[in-house]
TrEMBL record:
This is ABC transporter ATP-binding protein. Residues 282-305 are annotated as: Disordered. GO terms for molecular function: ATP binding; ATP hydrolysis activity. Residues 19-276 form the ABC transporter domain. The keyword Nucleotide-binding applies. One of its GO terms (biological process) is peptide transport. The keyword Glycoprotein does not apply. It comes from Actinocrinis puniceicyclus. InterPro entries: AAA+_ATPase (IPR003593), ABC_transp_ATP-bind (IPR050319), ABC_transporter-like_ATP-bd (IPR003439), ABC_transporter-like_CS (IPR017871), Oligopep_ABC_C (IPR013563), P-loop_NTPase (IPR027417). PANTHER family: ABC TRANSPORTER, ATP-BINDING PROTEIN (PTHR43776:SF8), TRANSPORT ATP-BINDING PROTEIN (PTHR43776). Keywords: ATP-binding, Nucleotide-binding, Transport.
Amino acid sequence: MTTLSETASPAGGATDVVLEAEELTKHFPVRRRLRAAFSGERPAVHAVDDVALLLRRGRVTALVGESGSGKSTVARLLAQLYPRTGGAIRLHGAETTVRGGRRFRAYSGKVQMIFQDPFASLNPVHTVRYHLTRALRVHDRVGRGRAETEAALADLLAKVQLTPPQRYIDKFPHELSGGQRQRVAIARALAAGPEALLADEPVSMLDVSIRLGILNLLRDLKEQMDLAILYITHDIASARYFADETQVMYAGRMVEGGDSESVTQQPAHPYTRLLIDSAPDPDRLAAQAGGADPDQSASLDEGTGEVASLIHPPSGCRFHPRCPHAMQVCTAQVPPRFEVAGVTSRGADESGRPAHWAACWLYSPEHAGDAAGAAA
Ligand SMILES: Nc1ncnc2c1ncn2[C@@H]1O[C@H](COP(=O)(O)OP(=O)(O)O)[C@@H](O)[C@H]1O
Ligand SMILES: [Mg+2]
């Protein structure tokens, strides 16, 4: 059987791996009160199982999946906000586990999160100046000198295009628009001097009309600062627009990945195809006119079957109960990653472009024949 290696392609400027997860797993124990319903077992929510992910310098990697698929848990594990049940996280190749304290501060200086709701992530009683100054000081990015701090603050605001700085620096969060607040949250993340940004649905709470501006800002920052960005979204159309690579997650497992163009234009996994078919209009991100909220129209739970239980996840491929192409093997064995070169004819090349893969038995040489034509 041909499976893809999960390890990085040879080191080189464009493919320099900043952060890497392997076999990342998180099971949340079900609260004791609810355990009565599960006599004898120690039930757990299998939120993330056996996830592999690479974040490269100067690249945006999208992590796409419907609500509840484990995306935020992956981000929080990578940020070391949760202890993990299993697996490894490597920062520049070095296995890293931190729990609070100085080591956490050092780690979070390299790996910063941006949350969905900038209003919740900024403290309403503090100004922009306070938020940014505190972040600079916590991460030892400025000394006590006033002029030095002022210059660093102006630089941060300029980076997120809030200029002139004096217009914003003494504002409270409620005096800013949603987009401006998210820019402040991004500036605060940059104050740490990070190499990786984990952006968990950074635009989904914002007005449709300003989403593109924030994504373009993140892309500019990626280019100027050579950042590795994880872009979490349930909107696969925005992944095509914004991300170099895309990985698709379903019920706690990665099901497909590769360069964004291949994954979004020639999706291989039946789940990815379902995601794309349920997304109403691929150009809606660019079409900034108001109207229907794309979040709601992109909801997948209508007419596509039930999302898998994460307490008793389906055996084999977790998508098999919803899959129109399910075969015998799909119910019995977890599919490994298979290259889908036949679909895209784009393997990993010298430039480090990721191979297109799917964790789906349809792409196994031994089983492809069992579902006639399904993968064609
Ligand atoms: N702190 C937690 N305790 C228990 N279950 C959790 C916790 N956080 C997330 N979960 C569960 O893990 C699963 C994945 O959640 P999440 O990572 O938030 O998904 P997503 O971000 O893709 O919507 C969900 O079933 C969710 O209910
Ligand atoms: Mg989430």
